[in-house]
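Hi, here's the filled form for the chain we discussed.

Project: internal
Contact: R.S.
Residues: 364
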Amino acid sequence: MTAATDRRAATSRDTTNAFASGSLPAWSPWVILGASLGAVAAVFGLIAAATGETFSIIGTVFFGFLASTIVIVLISRLVEGSRQATNRLVTSLVVLAFVIALLPLISLVFTVVSNGTNRFDIEFFTYSMRNVVGEGGGAIHAIVGTLLMTGTATVISVPIGLLAAIYLVEYGTGRLARAITFFVDVMTGIPSIVAGLFAYAVFTALFGPGERLGIAGAIALTVLMVPVVVRSSEEMLRLVPNELREASLALGVPKWLTIVNVVLPTSIAGITTGVMLAIARVIGETAPLLVAAGFTQNLNYDLTEGRMQSLPVFVYSSYVAQGTDAQSYLDRAWAGALTLILIVMLLNLIARLVARQFAPKLGR
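And the returned structure, exactly as it came back:
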C-alpha cells in the first residue's frame, strides 16, 4: 500500500514538474527577458560611465530582446525539442519586430521625460514668461492658450464633421456626396501652414492686416480637424450592421430617430476615438498657430482679443530664441514638450472612459 502511494506521488511530481514533462514553465520567457534586459542595461551603463556618453535606451531594449530571443530558443531546444524551439523562435521574432517598430516611440518618451523633469515644477504651471529673461518663469499662458484654442476647434469641428459623416453614410448618394468626399480627401492632405494662412487671411480681411487672435488659431485648427473627424466617423458609422437599421425602420421608427437612437450609440466608441485622434493631430501644430495666433509672453484668456500663446509655439520659441542663459530656455522647452505629451495622454484616457461608458452593452 505504501509502495503504490509512493509511485502515485512520484508520478504526480513528474506530471506537475514542467521541466520533467519536456516543456518550459509559463514564467520562463519573462524571467529570461528580465535577466537579458538587466544584463544589457548593465553593459550599456558601464559603457556610458567609461565614455561619458548618455545611456542608450534604444540599444538596451533592442539587444536585450535580441539576447532573450537567443537564450529562450537555445533552452527550448535542449528541454522541449526542435519543433517547440522553432515555434518559440518565430514568436520571438514577431515580438522583436514589434519592439523595433516601438523603438522610436520609446526613445522619444525616454528623451522627453529625462530632459523635461528638470523644470517640471509648480512654478512652471503657475507662472507665465512675462518679464522673465533668464531662469524661472513658466508656461501657464501657453497651457491655457492650447486648451482654449484646441477646445474651441473641437467644439466647432466635431458637429460639422459628424453631421457630414452621417450625411455621407445615411443619405448621400449623388453628386453632392461625391463632391464632399473629394474635398474631404483634399483637405486631409493639405499642409498645416496652409490652414494657418487661410485663417490669417480671413481675419486680415475682417479686421485689417497684422491682426493675430486666438480665435484665428482655433479656426486654423478647425480646418485641420474637420477632415479627420469626417473620415473616422464615416468609417465607424459604416461598421454598424444594416440589420440594426432595418429592424428599427421595420418597427416604424423614423430614419432620423434610428440614427440618433441606434446608429450613433452603436458607433459612439469608435467616433470618440476618432475625435481624440483628431485632437491629437492638431494639438501639437506649430506653424498654423504661429501664423494665425502669434505668440506672447502674457496670459490671455480672451480668444477674441490680442495674441495667444500655445505650447507648441512656446517650445519652438524657447528653443530657437535662447537668451543669455541658454540652458534655462532648453529646460522650459523640454518641460513644455513633456506637458504636451501628458495632455494628449490624459485626453486619450478620458476618451477611453467615455467610450466604455457609452458603448452598447452586449451582454444579456
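Let me know if anything looks off before we file it.
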